[in-house]
Fold each of these.
Amino acid sequence: MPIVWRVLSRINCRIESAAWRRPRAILWAAAGVAALVLLVALEIAARRYAGVPGPVTTQVREVIFAPKPGPLYGGLALTMVVLTWRERFIAAGAAIGIDLVFVLVRWAVDAEVPEGHEFGNGALWVMLGCAVIALTRRTGEERALLLKGVGLGLLLVAGRKTGDTWLLVTAKTRPDVLDPYLATADHALGNPSWAMGRLLEASGPVVTHVLDVVYAQLAVAAVAVALYQLRKVATERRFPRHHLVRTFLVIGLLGPAIYMIFPVVGPVFAYGPGASGTGGVQWSVANLWPHTPVPVHIPHPVPYDDLTPRNCMPSLHTAWATAIFIHSRKGPRLLRFAGAFWLVATLSATLGFGYHYGVDLVAGVVFALTIEAALRAYDRGWDKRGILLVAHGATVFTALLFSYRFLPLEMAEHPWVSGPLLVLAMCSVIYGYVRTTRQWEAQTPKPVPAPRPEPERRPELV
């Protein structure tokens, strides 16, 4: 009877496991199809509206032509979390060797290479090679694990390509921008972009350079935190239930859709001299940033060029930095300090360089926390707390967008009421997130360490 019971138990467990995996398999298949449809749609949109290759063509070209190395080597680093140390050294050496061959060939044929795009092909070749090895030399769970690692790395690269195409589409399809609405609503917060812009001017070149590096290398910080979270994948042979890369990709996927709904270019472009060679005084509403706040008047849409991305509302840099901060909280002290520093420096840079209004940052924090809450609730199984938290975050985010669009004048005329309300709305989402996740963690059973085997007793000598 005990043998029969054990056999029946195993059969029952396998049936339950298969029933649990089937919905997840269907969900992942649906997500893959949706991602493919999105890439094809963006490819068509890029060629139709801008006459340039889209993310699919650009990614295929980088197998041969000079790419930007950062995203590709970041993707390779994520792929290598599933490899052993020996395999990691082989993969890294192969990537560097392939890149050296490409560099020598381009030098021999005197090919024109953009500055900073000399390396990167090797990382892409190694990721593709890992996919081939998984399909031809691996089976079962080992094949699935290696394919997940390759998919994670390629998703990071594809996410960057998709984001670049999204920004191009926003500039081509949204000729009018809504910056006057946000500039007016920003009076409720005391025009923080104007204040930080003046402060950054007075701080000197060293602070400016540090903030510029932090702002530009946000993905590096994300990869560092993700590698810490995924450090045990190679030994445990499985990915953790939730990690930063998922949140990062979902933020990058959903954020540009809001850009299309609420196109904004930012203070330095709409009210200043422009930056990075785009925009300019000829397209500005007025040359006011950062020394003269925008006068309070009835806002209206204004036309802008077809080159500058409409990428302000919400601030995705703020959302990504918030996600990095959240996921660094479970790490060692150095990682926690780095996450806090990156958040503060990113917020300072977005305002000080004139890339965002203060109200963008408030929306970005709410946006990030809502997505993070939804992913965690999905992993745990949707319960009442998770549903209420996500619904609250989505409601607050929607209310922020509506207030910026339809009540900016009232917000500017009553800053001592509207300003605290904005901060209170953001803090309510922060409080709800912290409270709910702590309750979830308290309910999660902690893993019990395996009992140590008792030392073998030897007969005593008589």
Amino acid sequence: MLSEQSAATVRATLPAVGAALGTITERFYAGLFEAHPELLRDLFNRGNQAAGTQRQALAGSIAAFATHLLDRPGQRPDAMLRRIAHKHASLGVTPEQYGVVHEHLFAAIAEVLGDAVTPEVAAAWDEVYWLMANALIAVERRLREEHGGPTWRAWEVVERVAETTDVATFRLRPADGGPVRDFFAGQYVSVRVTLTDGARQIRQYSLSGAPGPDLRQISVKRVYTAGAPDGDPRRVEAGDVLEMSEPFGDLVLDADSDTPLLLASAGIGVTPMTAMLSHLADSGHRAPVTVVHADRSPATHALRTDHEAYAAKLPDAAVHLWYEQDAPAGTHPGLVDLTGVPLAPGTRAYLCGPLPFMRAVRTQLIAKGVAPADIHYEVFGPDLWLAGQA
């Protein structure tokens, strides 16, 4: 909980700090990477840095956390903290790095705001930072303890399957021959690859299925990023070895077999939903399951066969597909419109896909009576949802 004195100072300065956060985070990352180039080389996603999305996500999370402390002083925004902590744990972020971030973030604040950063203002925002940082450190420590073992492990690609022209599925086995831990459908892994310049870049991919007790499966979409470095393992073939983390992520099914569900995805967001459908089919889920997916065309709908096959195994499932081009009979043309899609009372929804898609679906679900607390989402890359709410 924020102290009373700091709360008053933060409330008074939040508009000014919030308005300058974009510039502050830009200066922060410039200073951080100048002092610690290894972080840009081996930890931070250089594509996200080039696009500016990581700066937007950081600014949004700081503003959202400070606002939450002021509006609900007796609560922590645990959902936001868990989402960030899972990503950090998957990337191998250490407690010591929070001190490094603090040093360069507050140097950037002082540089941008100048004389407005009095000792009182600095102390208040320092309290905000460490409340957030210490909460994340604690959650990340628990996650590491739960998973055990080293952050990174070598995995051999045993099979590569072309799903579409831009998506391939990889099945991997531990190179050390050791056991494979269970995962929750909807979770993701981090994959670390070495680029031609020697940088070891990290990307995160949802587990798209459980092909066997000693295997992991990810489905990777080719990313076209103009002018930005790309670390996707697009040229990986069977026999190659990748470094991969244990599964993390908080977008996991949290419902009994009598809870109605909606699984909505767009594009490569289909990957966690396919894993969820497989789990629901295997576990004998009885309640209605509404499957919603949007794509450019049937040809770009990765994992479509699995998507529909798993849904067909459920006793009460309805599949609704939208395609912007070449929509065949039985599907819908254009963008997702849930107006005519019936939903059972008490439906719990899980969303994954581009941010505009998820925001549109969330708005439609709330209009249909789904409780906001029952709508869960996963963002690939920096979480700009918070930036849009800040």
Amino acid sequence: MNHIVFEVGLAIALVALSGLLAAKFSFSVIPFYILVGMAVGPHAFQIWHLDFRFIESAALIEFMGRIGVLFLLFYLGLEFSVGRLVKAGKSIAMGGTIYILINFSLGLVLGWGLGFPLEEILVVAGITTISSSAIVAKVLVDLKRTANSETEMILGIIMFEDVFLAVYISILSGLVLSGSSSLGGVLLSALIALAYMLGLLIIGRKLVPVINKALNIRSGELFALVIFAILFLVAGFSETIHVAEAIGALLVGLVLAETEHVKRIEKLIIPFRDFFGAIFFFSFGLTIDPRTLGGEALWYSLAAVVVTLLGNFIAGLLAGRSAGLSPRASSNIGLTIVSRGEFSIIMANLGKAGGLLAILQPFAAMYVLILAILGPLLTKESKWIYRMLDKLFKFESRHVKRMAQKRTPASEEQ
């Protein structure tokens, strides 16, 4: 324990080095942060005080990573607003339902096709359905896409996924850990989560004038303390009622985005977002043991990646179309939320706790690693990818024909 500060310093140095390499090659930093985390960890080595195993500091680094997720989602909320989200409520509900139905159904088919028993099939479906809110937030901010037309749908799907996750974990925990599940308890949990999220947005918006007055604080130190207190209290409380703490942070950001202090809050948060966000991806890499990645799990994960890429793209197109978005904006939805991460690992750990097949852990780790690396790259190159696919499937010409058909009846009526 005497060298824990030195260990954390070593971790930060590795993260900085990987970031510099990413910048040199003009790549997304996320894969580099994850890969350097994988390269070290319990399976690594120690040279004098340079302990690359990070055993003593693992818990602290993990906690710093959790803080990073909060700042990433909080900042994403600040870049958006409750007003835009409320106006798009109906289309978000439709888009979120489409996304979950397609990806969950494909996950069930995948698990069945791989020959897994029923409980393992349900775990596989959970692993492949939920996207990584942390990676999505990082990509949107890095690529400056928070103002894009499709971003409100992306945020809506992230929150929709969280309600689904609260319900699904309740069901799966009952089946896997105890062999039973209370329908009443599951429904109550889902209703509480949904009511909490909607209530926080609605009440928060009503209280904006009060918040404006309360945040008229001249001292930068006190202003920071008040903002951090609100963020951590709401995010932490959210976790106690089965709403992910990251979603709680997103909701706080959405509310504070309506205030007159939003620019000051953004300026305060950016350094913390960047620092702790980088630590999150490093700590995520620490949880993946490269020695377990191979064999049967590798082929299973590759099959799951193909299914996820297909399902996400189709779901993005349909969700965007339901909201009246252009084909290009709709394709951006599927390509942006393709990354998988923390929630998939939670699902795999649930299977481990229930004594299910041991292959679920390496399968989930390899699957998450591939999509955590591939997701940011696909998002960055989404314009080129869409152009290539449009040549094959003629998305734009079909969209123009649909728009023309819609206008024709309207003109005839006049």
Amino acid sequence: MPQTKASVAVTGTGVRSRPRAVLPALCVTQITSWGVLYYAFPVLNPTITKNTGWPAGATTAAFSAALIVSAIVGIHVGRVLDHRGPHAVMTAGSILGPLSLLVVAAAPNLAVFTAGWLLAGASMAATFYQPAFAALTRWWAPDHVRALTIVTLAGGLASTVFAPLTAVLADHMSWRATYVVLAGILAALTVPAHALALKAPWPPAPPSPSHVAGGHERVVRSRAFWMLAVTFTLSAFAMYAVVIGLVPLFLERGYTTTQAAWALGLGGAGQTLGRTLYATLARHLGVTARTISLIALGALTTAALSTVAGPYAVLVAVSILAGVIRGNLTLLQATAVTDRWGTTHYGRLSGLLGAPSHAAAALAPVAGAVLAGPLGGYPALFALLAGLSIAAAITALGARTKQLEGTPHLQPR
């Protein structure tokens, strides 16, 4: 593990201490945390329901409950991050994650299975992007977009690495044994990384921008904040329903689980590609134009997945393109607070802004599974999700902030 001794970097606003180990550590832990706690589930769920006899809607609801817990806990996590930094929060979360998966693996019934996922939700809140973004935004500002891009580039590989790995493990052992192996990988890679790399002193919060008067309370009450929350909520519901629904969409069209897992994994590679393009996009488009454009493009890729039945290579190409858009949307949300209201209350504002979208992401998997039947299958579901994305692009018009409208993001420097 790299040393945690801070290096000194000169930025546009002065000298700021940046712990050398943080960036590589968070790259590793985001790949592993997302890969094990999130992307393994859609690969394993068909096997879980087949072997246990539990309804697919019930197992998906347990996973969705984890995401709801993550959204709720994330609000408190944001407050802690602003004041104390990420060390204790992310270390505790990386310990809880493997323990929760061991509960899931050993579950004798659906109730215990659900309880394990509820614990996993608390781990997600403490280890996924929100705390990592808060750490990088405070330590790397004003050049934080570069650091965010690097970490999300790595995080985009989570499905690329862990969806196929999970499928291979499941081909050679039970789903329970697979989760035990994945829990061991999660513990081995994330606990020491968070415990050792995030020990550096937490710098004081910078002052609020001049146009942000009245503190975070006034921001939270503003029309722009709530319209942005609506936009991200609709977009998140559509995006995560697509991610979780991609495997059953492929299965419904006659492809194998392994083929579906590779399509999901290559979509993760698309996310990585997309994130390399975000800085250029941010330099040329203002905040609102960027938001509308990316969400509208997401609607187009979802519509394509709905209407294109094959061949397999074409579906994979569309999945990769959808991943490119998802990758940009992740950075769009990561920079939404700083683009509009600065970094002073980043943890608190991002926690509040993200809570409804995280809840929507939590409901999306079970809602998608429930709606697919009455709608006539996953192609029709994807058509509905494309419509929701279009609605999200429209509501983004109401999230304008006068001070920043039309001003492209000038980072990274």
